[in-house]
Every structure is written in structure tokens, then in C-alpha cells.
Amino acid sequence: MSSSFSAGSSPLAAYGWDTSLENEFTSHRAAGLIPGRVAAVDRGLCDVVTDTGPTRASTGATGSITSDPPCTGDWAALRPDGPDGRPAIAALLPRRTAIVRSSAARDSRGQVLAANVDTVAIAVSLAVAVDLGRAERLLALAWESGARPVVVLTQSDLARSAADADQARDRVAGAAPGVDVAMCSAATGDGVDAVRAVLAGTVVLVGPSGAGKSTLGNALLGAEVLATGAVRAGDGKGRHTTVRRELLPLPGGGVLIDTPGLRGVGLFEASTGLERAFADVEDLAAGCRFGDCAHDTEPGCAVLAAVEDGALPRRRLDSYRKLQRENEWAAARTDARLHAELQNRRRAITLLQRQKYQQDRREGRDR
Predict the structure, then answer these.
(1) Which residue among 24, 100, 232, 331 is buried most deeply as judged by most CB within 10 Å?
(2) Is residue 259 marked as binding?
(3) How far apart are CA 250 and CA 203, in angstroms?
């Protein structure tokens, strides 16, 4: 590789490749590997964008069996001639950010939804009553990832009235301190430019089915690339028209990752995310008399005082407590898993030591 390489001259620059990534890739390039970004993942195979265009690669060659499998958004080092004749992912570059939720299997391991994301766009539909609790949960997930969250109120043309839409925006803004809130109708184009203005870098769309993510994605992409479907009028729910996460370049720069609708989003070790999502509660808690105040019945609780005088909605405190309990439970499961893995490792070492001792005794008797 020539020392005159410029990350900006690489076709991968449109997908986020930069000088820092090129420097990280030095040892891989010296080993004959090529860089690429994972665009979509199937079982055992994935679509990867490289300097020479898209390719289909196998995922079975990644180094350690304990490492995370490739995920949409990952930067990968590819071996051009894999064991099955197709390119193979040999290694993943360290993730700058990662959106992780509790796994669908409800075990103690997290599931990575997208990697190396700069902006998390949380789609909240105005076609139905806004679920602030779900929005707060997704905000905690987004903050924990290390990316910047943005709330996009979609389907404004389906709101009962303009006044209802404005009221919903105010309610969401109150539940999303420090977060940009934009409103649009992707179907009519109204507000799409305002949404585009608050998005940057690699953008991932998250939210439930029927929230209009794919329709918004098509508006941002400037083409009908993503499949869309109708929603039920009664509850605003729709079919999962997006069946896998995929990565697409945006015409004005940056990259878009569309995700399937999330029926449930369990928090996974999201303490920092909760602190950011509930910054107003955390700020109030700093004024409590006791440092370990649970904001329940303790005297001198600044949080309860704010609820009583109307400065903090009771609903918001209840949501904060609920998500804190869930996160503590998830952390306890992780601790239990780590403890079990440590115990298994110790048992394996003890077994090897016992086998070696018995072998030494046998060899001593034979001499």
C-alpha cells in the first residue's frame, strides 16, 4: 500500500472510512487483508461494501469464537480468498459505538443491533397516541450506545390535528432533555428537510413497526429503496416490512441503517444511558438529603418534592424507577453469568491439575 494513501480518496469514504480507521487497519493491510463495511448480515454470510464494490463474504473466519459476530455497520478486515472460495471476514475493527439491547432469548448476553453509529433517529408515530415510556426506553438505549439520539415524530399528516401534533411534540420534548425533536410527514415531504438537518454521519432508524421508519428512510434516500407497508388504523401497528438491518449511502453524505420494527427493547447494562435519558431526574436527585435516596418515602427527597409541586411529572418518575429496576436486574444476570463462567474455568483448571497429578504418580510407579 502506498504511503500516499488518502482515506478521503477511497470509495469507502462515502460509507465513513477515514484516516483514523486507515491507521487502525495498518497491520491488517500488511497481512494482505482488505477493508470493508458490513451492510447486512445473514446466517453465515454478509454483504460487505469494499473499495471495489459490494461483495458477499463468509463470516466463519473471524478470529475468536468468543468475539461478537459481525453486525451491520461493522468495519471488517476481509481475506480475499476464503476457505470456501469467497471472501471471508478475518477480523473486525474495534467498534466506536454499538447499540446493544437485551437479547431476544432473554439470557445474560446483549444483542448488538448496529455498530459504529453516529446518530440514532428514534421514530415516534403521530398517527396514534404517543407512548412516552417507549420513547424514554429507546433514548436510554441510544445514549448508552455512545451515539447522539434524535427523536423524529413521523406521520404528522395522520395526526388528528395540527394542535395535537404540536402538543405531542411538547410532551416528547419534555421527556427527552437535551435531545433534538423534529416532526415530519415523509408521505407529503413536509418537515423532511428539518429532519435531514439534525442527522449526521451513520444514522440508524429505530422504533416499532408501523412508525414510518422505511417511508422516512426512502424520503431521506430520495428513492423507493426500502419496502413499506400499511398499518392498522386501530393501534398503528404494522407488519415488519424491514426484515433485516441494511446499510445504504445517503445522497447528501452519510449512511443510513434501517432496522426491523422492535416489538420489545430490553435494556442491557444501560446505567449511563439512563442517566442521560433522565438528566432532569438526576439533576434533582443531586439535591436529595441522602446520597442513596430511592426517591420513594425518604425525607428531604428533592425528586419527590418536584413531583409534589408539579415540576416533575409523576409518570416520568415512575418510568425512571421502572427502567432502573430492569437495568439492575439485567446487570445482576450478567454478574451471575460471569460468576458461572469463572467457576467453570476454575473447575477446568482443577481437573487438569488433578489429571496431571495422577499421570505423574503413574509415571513414578512405572520408573
Answers:
(1) 100
(2) no
(3) 9
Provide mean pLDDT across the span 188-215. 94
11: domain CATH number is: 2.40.50.140
- Other C-beta atoms lying within 10 Å of the C-beta of residue 258: 27
- Average pLDDT value for residue range 135-153: 97
Grid cell, residue 249, equals: 449511502
Q: What CATH number has the domain bearing residue 181? A: 3.40.50.300
Please give the single-letter amino acid code of residue 175: A
211 annotated binding-site participant: yes
DSSP per-residue letters across 257-319: EE----S-----S-HHHHHHHTHHHHHHHTTSSSTT--SSS-TT-HHHHHHHTTSS-HHHHHH
Residue 210 assigned as binding residue: yes
- Residues 224-267 pLDDT 10s: 988 775 544 444 444 444 445 779 999 989 999 988 756 667 78
Place of cell 469464537: 65
